[in-house]
Structure to design on (1195 residues):
């Protein structure tokens, strides 16, 4: 319940935050909304020596329509994404999923950047990002770089950010209603997904992301390939478990999760108009 | 105009709503130090060594204690009935037997320094074989208590009539689980104590039974009970689990004595999920026999009760299961036998229903299977077997005597409220269409025993010189609204407005004795005691008034509308309650009061029928509760608002057990559900609004005509929901799904049935 | 470290450790014990307060993160003349509480919910309370309280 002691620093600017990360390396953790990090710290599963609070950097909170993508500042809270007119219009799957993460209180604090950087395969947003084929913008001492969503989730709770890099923006292609589907199986509304699936249809094809089907957020690549070669939703969904490594726990055996993945991918595809 | 029977709003509420309740952790205790515990991370192990030296050297640490330091005896057996070789030490000593068992107590200046120091206690364990499954434990291959020579902690040896089912045309058997659940009151356990200059222990506890806490502290700390003063502040729920006194409570008292400073302790939720007793945890084998016309002729239930690591109240709860063996049915022959065994898990205690939900869940499940076997509607089977309203008092085959009831009325009303025929039609339509989302309809007819323990209760009413009334009660409410309800009873008798009545509970100096609040006893014995005291005060007042008026006793009238006394025919000349209170003191120096120790007139038996409607997604196994209908009869209802609230809360817990909640251990005895993130504590999002109704069949057993209602919602609801889920997939060949009917369990059942692998048992 | 914030309209300044959670700052430093701690996994919502008008779980916010912010707790909801807020009033009238432990969190969560959605359906309320656990009431009357409060004219402005 009581976290271990740590040093607390508020970063006044992005550059200041990055400088602190450079200086303290693994001893320092970024504190955004705190709703991935603080729960771990309260159980003493994480004990960083320093927290760099970037919460006040409101300049990183925005949802903007750019020429051919929607730009979301990394510190935009889930709630703000959920009610953003731009998101509702041009990235409705993102607005929808952001609007059902955790519970209202969590959504008032949790940020898209914090959630994605956490790299939890059981979180909702990574799967959506994979389905959308988004891009992450990281900023470090040497400036900004773009990372494709497909390359962002490296291993269990590890993302492709260097220790001195900060996620500053998330970019997703524009989409509209009728082109997406999101299905999640939970026992209770506030639970993490036992299994989940996000499907987004665009001119480039269909992207499908999976929740909790492996040690990292996964794309259902076999499903995408089947669709690209002309399969319908049901036939393509049969491949949903291919390439996945779901864990077995008291909420689901491997076989069960594989089966549910197939069901939820099919339903998500149907909702996306496939 | 009687106030009784009205939906009187709670007097308790304004404080809770504007500044919040005052729970133990909220108490202002200047100079207090903080106690925390280091708990076992192993389910079964020899303690090789405990190194507290580093912890003791941490900043702010005042004391670090092991069981040897405490030098206290073990906790006693449960009511003298459980295996004496299995008693629990105050802190683990030599052997740890469940994950979460406290080993070391640390007292430090602040909550933070206590938590930090706890990280530095080093315990070295030598693992022992872990026994988690009660079925395995019963084989006695690996013993938790070698000196006991067995893992069996308690047995009820009844029955064994081999011929029980001989004449039955149809015999059905089932083995089913009534799974371990966690009570999860929103307020965790919390206690605080300090010694006064004159050697009294002042103690606050989040408890359901303050006098029990007092007596336990007195015993263990070698104090006269009069030297222990318990003040129970607001308590954030108990549900039976806080009726037990825990080792941690005693250690708080010991530390207070030892250190001469106020000591306070509030556990974390993670600790509470391990250390607060668990509920249920029975494996049941049931057998039912009857005719093809649906008449049940015989029933047997064999219970395997999981005690947890140390026998606690849960160990003996099969006794209560047995009391309700045959439920609301007129089954001529019925038996219940039980074996309780220890396992390397949290001890089991009373939890809302305490043995009776288990009885109801078992018989209601097999009634559905019986109905299915003979091809009869489950409501009709029940109707044919329910005890008739003219058959009371009714003695069951296990010698329980039910007081009064109209079980058919409850069944009919529940079915009508549910729109049963329409539901079955909708179900049939979806089945014919092969819908992915299937409808399930489940029934539960129940009767249960309240005020089942022999304790009486204390009640006192005093009228002060200013006309205000002080009520003292031995009950210990923690959400039930006794202040409001007892005020209503006293206002009714005295004609004094409720706002002029103060109700005191939980302070053992002010209330000399009491058995607390549990077992749905409070209104029928505690309220009744207060009611009787009020009646007695009215009689005393009339005596005094007769003196004052110089009139015949029989001519004195209490006008309740004005709260005053006059002589019949002369209402203009009156005396107020205040007048009489002063007169009492003037007469012999004693205030105008009455104290009652009401002996228990015996238990009462609330009953009802619940109907549950669920939707099952047959592709994922996910269950959604669409509707829940409850008809409950608790005799005379004093405040329907409060009674409904109890039913609502009970239903939620009952639904939770059917659909979601389960305490899970892995094979090494590691708990997998020890936080609110892992344990599926049901939320508003999983529940509908309930459709509830009361019928009122007053009981002749007590003066109020009231039965208990606190546990009925839980007892009646679980089997209805469970039956609904099984019903939803019955047409797919599924015979039974164990609780909780989580998505994977339901899907596995559908899958196995589809592949022809029936999970059935022998039948004739 | 010295942490300043406004609590129920009053400026507060207290020296606490960096690791101090907002809920403990409020309970121990400011002395407002109405807000409760019910769990350690951000699950139960008993600690819910308003931070700049929005519901947050104060056990999962560092006091340091709330520096400079405006916090409203249950103690600050009633009006200055002591009149209960419509949500508080609704809870009384609908018997929305029993033991009271979850109640401050529930009231604050509902206050925030109604500010964002003034005319919720029952489903909106239930899903909106997914992060607030109650063991006593079965939620039936809590939901009724929220819906009743939403219909009070003052709440519909």
């Amino acid at each position: 319940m009581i976290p271990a002691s740590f040093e607390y620093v508020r970063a006044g600017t992005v550059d200041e935050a990055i400088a602190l990360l450079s200086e303290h390396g693994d001893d320092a953790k970024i504190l955004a909304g705190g709703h991935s990090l603080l729960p771990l710290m309260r159980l003493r599963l994480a004990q960083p020596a320093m927290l760099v609070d970037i919460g006040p950097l409101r300049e990183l909170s925005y949802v903007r329509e750019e020429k051919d993508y929607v730009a979301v500042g990394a510190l935009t809270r889930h709630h703000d994404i959920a009610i953003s007119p731009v998101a509702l219009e041009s990235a409705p799957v993102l607005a929808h999923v952001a609007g059902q993460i955790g519970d209202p209180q969590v959504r008032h604090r949790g940020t898209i950047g914090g959630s994605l950087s956490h790299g939890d395969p059981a979180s909702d947003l990574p799967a959506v990002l994979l389905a959308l084929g988004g891009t992450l913008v990281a900023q470090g001492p040497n400036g900004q770089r773009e990372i494709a969503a497909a390359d962002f989730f490296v291993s269990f709770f590890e993302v492709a950010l260097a220790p001195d890099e900060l996620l500053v923006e998330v970019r997703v292609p524009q989409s509209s209603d009728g082109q997406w589907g999101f299905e999640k199986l939970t026992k209770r509304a506030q639970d993490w997904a036992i299994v989940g699936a996000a499907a987004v249809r665009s001119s480039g094809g269909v992207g499908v992301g999976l929740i909790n089907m492996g040690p990292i957020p996964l794309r259902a690549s076999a499903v995408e390939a089947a669709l690209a070669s002309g399969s319908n939703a049901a036939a393509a969904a049969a491949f949903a478990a291919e390439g996945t490594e779901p864990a077995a726990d008291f909420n689901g055996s491997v076989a069960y999760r594989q089966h549910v993945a197939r069901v939820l991918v099919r339903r998500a595809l149907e909702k996306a108009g496939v | 105009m009687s106030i009784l029977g009205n939906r009187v709003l709670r007097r308790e509420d304004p404080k809770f709503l504007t500044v919040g309740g005052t729970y133990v952790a909220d108490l202002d205790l200047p100079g207090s130090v903080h106690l925390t515990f280091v708990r076992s991370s192993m389910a079964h192990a020899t303690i090789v060594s405990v190194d507290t030296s580093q912890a003791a050297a941490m900043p702010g640490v005042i004391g670090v204690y092991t069981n040897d330091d405490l030098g206290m005896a073990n906790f006693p057996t449960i009511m003298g009935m459980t295996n004496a070789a299995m008693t629990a030490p105050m802190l683990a000593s030599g052997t740890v037997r469940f994950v979460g068992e406290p080993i070391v107590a640390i007292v430090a200046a602040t909550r933070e320094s206590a938590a930090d120091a706890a990280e530095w206690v080093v315990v070295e364990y030598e693992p022992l074989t872990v026994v988690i499954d009660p079925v395995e434990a019963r084989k006695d291959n690996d013993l938790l208590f070698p000196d006991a020579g067995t893992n069996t902690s308690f047995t009820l040896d009844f029955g064994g009539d081999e011929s029980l089912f001989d004449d039955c045309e149809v015999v059905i058997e089932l083995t089913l689980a009534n799974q371990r659940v966690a009570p999860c009151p929103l307020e965790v356990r919390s206690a605080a104590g300090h010694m006064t200059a004159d050697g009294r222990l002042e103690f606050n506890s989040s408890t359901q039974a303050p006098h029990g806490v007092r007596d336990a502290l007195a015993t263990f700390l070698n104090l006269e009970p009069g030297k222990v003063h318990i003040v129970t502040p607001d308590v954030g729920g108990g549900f039976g689990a806080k009726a037990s006194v825990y080792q941690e409570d005693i250690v708080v008292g010991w530390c207070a004595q030892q250190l001469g400073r106020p000591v306070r302790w509030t556990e974390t939720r993670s600790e509470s999920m391990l250390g607060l007793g668990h509920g249920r945890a029975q494996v049941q084998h049931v057998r039912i026999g009857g005719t093809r016309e649906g008449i049940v002729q015989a029933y047997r239930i064999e219970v395997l009760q999981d005690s947890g690591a140390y026998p606690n109240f849960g160990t003996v709860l099969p006794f209560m299961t047995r009391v309700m063996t045959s439920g609301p049915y007129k089954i001529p022959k019925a038996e219940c036998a039980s074996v309780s065994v220890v396992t390397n898990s949290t001890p089991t205690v009373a939890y809302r229903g305490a043995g009776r939900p288990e009885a109801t869940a078992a018989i209601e499940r097999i009634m559905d299977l019986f109905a299915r076997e003979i091809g009869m509607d489950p409501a009709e089977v029940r109707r044919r077997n329910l005890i008739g309203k003219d058959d009371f008092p009714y003695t069951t085959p296990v010698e329980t005597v039910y007081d009064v009831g109209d079980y058919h009325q409850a069944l009919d009303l529940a079915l009508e409220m549910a729109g049963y025929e329409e539901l079955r039609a909708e179900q049939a339509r979806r089945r014919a269409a092969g819908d992915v989302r299937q409808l399930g309809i489940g029934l539960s007819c129940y009767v249960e025993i309240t005020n089942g323990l022999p304790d009486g209760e204390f009640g006192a009413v005093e009228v002060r010189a200013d006309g205000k009334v002080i009520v003292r009660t031995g009950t210990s409410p923690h959400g039930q609204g006794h202040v409001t309800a007892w005020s209503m009873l006293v206002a009714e008798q005295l004609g004094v407005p409720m706002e002029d009545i103060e109700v005191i509970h939980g302070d053992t100096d002010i209330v000399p004795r009491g058995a607390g609040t549990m077992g749905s006893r409070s209104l029928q014995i505690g309220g009744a005691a207060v009611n009787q005291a009020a009646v007695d005060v009215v009689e005393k007042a009339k005596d005094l008034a007769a003196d004052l008026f110089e009139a015949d006793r029989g001519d004195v009238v209490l006008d309740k509308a004005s709260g005053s006394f006059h002589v019949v025919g002369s209402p203009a000349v009156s005396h107020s309650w205040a007048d009489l209170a002063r007169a009492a003191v003037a007469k012999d120096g004693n205030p105008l009061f009455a104290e009652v120790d009401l002996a228990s007139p015996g238990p009462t038996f609330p009953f009802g029928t619940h109907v549950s409607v669920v939707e099952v997604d047959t592709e994922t196994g996910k269950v959604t509760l669409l509707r829940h209908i409850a008809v409950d009869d608790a005799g005379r209802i004093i405040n329907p608002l409060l009674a409904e609230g109890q039913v609502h809360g009970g239903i939620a817990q009952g639904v939770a057990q059917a659909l979601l909640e389960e305490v899970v251990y892995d094979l090494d005895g590691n708990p997998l559900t020890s936080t609110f993130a892992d344990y599926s504590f049901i939320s508003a999002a999983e529940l509908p609004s309930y459709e509830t109704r009361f019928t009122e069949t007053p009981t002749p057993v007590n003066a109020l005509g009231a039965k208990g209602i606190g546990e009925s919602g839980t007892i009646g609801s679980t089997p209805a929901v469970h039956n609904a889920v099984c019903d939803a997939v019955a047409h797919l060949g599924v015979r039974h799904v164990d609780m909780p009917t989580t998505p994977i369990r339901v899907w596995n059942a559908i899958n196995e049935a589809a592949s022809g692998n029936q999970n059935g048992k022998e039948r004739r | 470290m010295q942490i300043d914030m406004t609590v129920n309209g009053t400026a507060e300044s207290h020296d606490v450790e960096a690791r101090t959670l907002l809920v403990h700052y409020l309970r121990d430093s400011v002395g407002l014990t109405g807000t409760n701690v019910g769990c350690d996994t951000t699950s139960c919502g008993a600690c819910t307060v308003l931070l700049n008008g929005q519901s947050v779980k104060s056990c999962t916010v560092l006091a340091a993160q709330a520096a400079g912010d405006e916090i409203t707790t249950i103690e600050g909801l009633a009006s200055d003349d002591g009149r209960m807020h419509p949500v508080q009033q609704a809870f009384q009238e609908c018997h929305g509480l029993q033991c009271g432990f979850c109640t401050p969190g529930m009231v604050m969560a509902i206050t925030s919910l109604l500010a964002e959605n003034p005319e919720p359906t029952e489903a909106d309320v239930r899903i909106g309370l997914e992060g607030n656990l109650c063991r006593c009431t079965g939620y039936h009357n809590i939901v009724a309280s929220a819906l009743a409060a939403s219909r009070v004219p003052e709440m519909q402005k």
About this structure: The mean pLDDT of chain C is 97. Chain C is about 30% helix and 15% strand. Strands of chain C lie at 2-7, 10-15, 48-51, 54-57, 70-72.
